[in-house]
Design brief:
2 copies of one chain form a homodimer. Helices cover about 35% and strands about 20% of the residues of chain A. Chains A, B: Its EC number is 3.5.2.3.
Chain lengths: ~350, ~350
């Protein structure tokens, strides 16, 4: 049994910088993908058109066969003029991180109102707003990593109301509330879902940092909601892996004063993993739209003669996921290391 | 400023066996306590009177100045006759672990009905039933570590209804639901609260295995409920530390296929830690009853001439918690290693 998928597109991926980038960027293609929607949370964050173009050219040097869609990091320095410049330069989106909730988000936003002139310009030139949909934890309001996403949804709803034509993507949804909210909003609002959130619940990251990421995986019923909406073939929901490499020692080891890094790395196995998971809950027939059609449609990135490249998967019986990928001093450990997948890419 | 506490009693502690026991048992006294209610989840578990007495005598060899109250591990081999024998030998309680939810609980219970003859005998001779109040995770019923305790409460309520005179302790409560349920039940039902659950929420163990224990710390509002009931000076709620030592490498490090050990170790700093925490939420005036009076009253263990031993705490400004305690090859890392406490024991 085999499946041929046209030009799979990962609408949320972290390709990092420096030596780590050299290791992980080729994993986009190795994992079966031809398009990477690239996150801007570098050190320093990508906040200008020039930075984004320079970053894109670095990535193209590493692997020129991938279509990189670039993003800017929402921050007070970002102006409506810069938005217009970015749009003209082919930059696709602006990513918003609430302050302090994930890797390199220390410069993230605290309130959206101050960004309304920027959003106005984005709406005008049709750039996409990518939302990390969590509010910061606050014990005084009973806010913690478990309800940070549901509590963010009022912001999403308000942004959509105030900018109905602005295309907004709620990134890496993890809760039934988020799925329901996105379904209820207009056609300019979509949602990415990661591979790992289709597999994990809170039990899987309790004491197991390799499965720990932000947003954290939630209740079984939340996972079920993500699976259901894919099974339904709902066109607003498509893959964004949020594949996030970290040096293995920052994942494996914590001290009493230093926690493990948040992030799950799926790039090198992404398409087989997604096929495996979708098959496990009876949604294999939705694979093509989930990993290519729906996201490309929302972003207005149809497959062209130039970007057409079919990826063939074949059914296998239990192919083991490698324990580690390495290049020079750098290495990364993938999600499901040592476990088995029932699909592999035909080369 | 100083406080004098009469014979503090820890109504839930893991003293382990072998070399680790030799290291940690003296920490009961070092942490300011004079009574230890000892958990039976050894390898193999303590399921007979003879085992419990042998274990007690090992502990007394290590530190004879502690009053050890012994427990049996609820399992199919336990008979009403053994209960009567245990009672006659001075054994105080029987601990029930749901199967597979925490350290060495693989032999735990799946259903309570089969134990009714045992509970009948316990009620008759007045032994205490100690409940690890979590149901096993089951994605098909949306059960996970976050709601395993609320979902257990129906079992608690039924057991109390069926055995109204049986003294039952819901151990290490972590949720508002559990606090409310215990409050609503009759005077034979009480509840222990750990020190660390007064400090932690889910955010603290996300990616930080040193704060990971079972039951996991929950929402800020759940922590608030634990704090509130102590502030109220409610006599059904008293300290059981659930202090659980593990080899440091099993806490600090996980591989993709092997999670970190669940357990937080508080014994060597317990009384100063509890004083520090109670003071932080305005409940220092409840310290004596929380760590001595209420638990002793429920268990019928008043302080006698023989067991009277006042422990004096003094207020200090920021005493650092040691990074590690060691003896020979064994070592343990305490909760809050490297952080500061505002109270210390006067020796």
């Amino acid at each position: 049994m085999s499946l041929s998928i046209p030009s799979p597109a990962d609408f949320h991926v972290h390709l990092r910088q420096g030596a780590l980038s050299t290791l992980v960027t080729p994993h986009v293609r190795a994992g079966g993908f031809r398009l990477a929607y690239v996150m801007p949370n570098l050190k320093p964050p990508v906040t200008t058109t020039d930075q984004a173009l320079a970053y894109k050219s670095e990535l193209e040097k590493i692997d020129p066969e991938i279509e990189y869609l670039m993003t800017l990091y929402l921050c007070p320095e970002l102006t409506p003029d810069e938005i217009r410049k970015a749009k003209a330069a082919g930059i696709v989106g602006v990513k918003s991180y609430p302050r302090g909730v994930t890797t390199n988000s220390e410069g993230g936003i605290e309130s959206y109102e101050v960004y309304y002139p920027v959003f106005e310009a984005m709406q005008e030139v049709d750039m996409v707003l990518n939302l990390h949909g969590e509010v910061p934890s606050d014990p005084s309001t009973n806010t913690c990593v478990l309800n940070a996403e549901p509590k963010f949804l009022t912001h999403l709803i308000k942004l959509h109301r105030d900018f109905p034509k602005l295309r907004i993507v709620l990134e890496h949804a993890t809760t039934r509330s988020a799925v329901d909210a996105v379904k209820a909003l207009g056609p300019t609002v979509a949602c990415t879902i990661t591979a790992h959130h289709l597999a994990l619940t809170v039990d899987d990251w309790a004491g197991q940092a390799w499965n720990f990421c932000k947003p954290v995986a939630k209740y079984p019923d939340d996972r079920e909601a993500l699976r259901e909406v894919i099974k339904q073939g709902h066109p607003k929901f498509f893959l964004g892996s949020d594949s996030a490499p970290h040096p293995p020692e920052t994942k494996s080891t914590c001290t009493p004063t230093h926690a493990c890094a948040a992030g799950v790395y799926t790039s090198p196995i992404l398409l087989p993993l997604v096929a495996h998971l979708l098959e496990s809950f009876g949604a294999l027939d939705k694979l093509e739209n989930f990993v290519s059609g729906f996201g490309r449609a929302f972003y207005g990135r149809p497959i062209t003669k130039e970007t057409e490249s079919r990826v063939v998967l074949k059914k296998v019986s239990g192919k083991k996921v490698a324990d580690r990928w390495a290049l020079g001093q750098e290495s990364v450990v993938p999600f499901w290391a040592g476990k088995e997948l029932d699909w592999e890419i035909v080369h």
